[in-house]
Amino acid sequence: YAMVANDYDGAIAYPDPGSQPQSEVIFEDDDFNNERLDFSRVPTHNFDPTVATWNGSASSGDLTNRHTNASGGKITNLGSNGEIADKPFRDWVFPVLNNEARRYSQNVGYYELSGGSDALLFRDVISDEITGRPEMYAWYVACSSTPTVGSNLGLLDDVTTTIVRPDIITTVAAGGTLVLDVVSGATGGNGTIVLDDTDVYLPNRGDLSLNTATGEVTYEPFYYLEEGEDEFYVTLRSGDNMFKMVKVYVLVGPATTEETLVGGTHITATGGAGEITVNIGQKPELYGRTVRLVQYQIPGDTKWGRVCNLWPQGDTITLTTDADGNALTSADTAIRFRYIHNHGLGESAASADVPVTVT
Question: What confidence category does residue 307 fall into, taking pLDDT thresholds of 50, 70 and 90?
């Protein structure tokens, strides 16, 4: 196993791991502000959606023209050449045997594609190895002749158009009810976009129900949750069986804006010989949010740098470079702070500049 910390392009040569299979890599990174890792990245792939061929009747032997991991790549925070399936289990997640295709056709049915051939349609979720973010995709098993078992489910447009729907960041009062029209605002896809109830990632701190007729979801926080964060995924489907998994971030509570950091109260900074010592003090009022990263910036920096993860009250951190990676000098006379929280990966406002004396 390769252990990687703060080394996105280092030891194992990301974004292409070369001879080191991504399924055999443990990846650690403290950078939660999307500078190197994008926590909102949707995993994609470059596999051909037709993953195998079935002759429409065979019940023994293997499917032909079958995909393996070598037929394409999964594109995630680990790079652009990821495996669609982990080799210790199988080299594919796609159908393998003729009898699997036959049973699927018999139990589910088959479609006529707009290109003129028949195909079995199934779907599978892939995910980002780092963030766990899922996304659903449609796959086809082409039929070289009309299936002899199963029902014809009708014409399916296989000229696909991606569904676009931003994630939802919202709030609800404690003990309240949140009703969201998830379909509204979705574009792309061929045909009507609907709410699909087959694949739902449920919230941890509330109840969720779906109304596929209206495209609405209803969320109710558990009775004991007065302030806090929750999240869930729901799936949209278009007429051409394209999918989009929408993440919903929910903040339970008064929906008050998080407190800005104040130097001397929440965080202190003291200059020294080529360094700035930062002490983590009283936690700001978050109104149910959770700090995942504290950042700093020297006036004139183009980036924000990491001070620490979470809010380790009482800890002392020593900084020796500005956020752009340059060594601190006597010209650096101030520092400012902010934090990233979990609710939609939101950022607090920056603090006022805190004076420091670097020698």
Answer: very high
Is there a contact between 253 and 228 (Cβ–Cβ < 8 Å)?
yes
Continuous segment of H or E residues that includes residue 106:
helix 98-107
Residues 89, 136 contacting (CB under 8 angstroms): no
DSSP-assigned letters across all residues of 240-263: T--EEEEEEEEEES--PPPPPP-B
The arithmetic mean of pLDDT across residues 72-87, rounded, is 78
Q: Are 82 and 129 in contact (CB under 8 A)?
A: yes
Question: What sign has the CA pseudo-torsion 237, 164, 135, 96?
Answer: positive
Backbone angles phi, psi at 345, to 5 degrees: 55, 40
One-letter identity of residue 177 = T
Coil vs helix vs strand at 71:
helix
pTM to 2 decimals? Answer: 0.83
CA 285 to chain centre: 27
Give CA 349 to chain center in angstroms.
24
Q: Tell me: the pLDDT tens digits for 140-179?
A: 999 999 999 999 999 887 667 889 999 999 999 999 999 9
Q: Which two tokens stand for residue 54?
A: 């079935």
Which two tokens mark 310? 């979470």
Q: For 28, list phi and psi in degrees, rounded to 5.
A: -125, 135
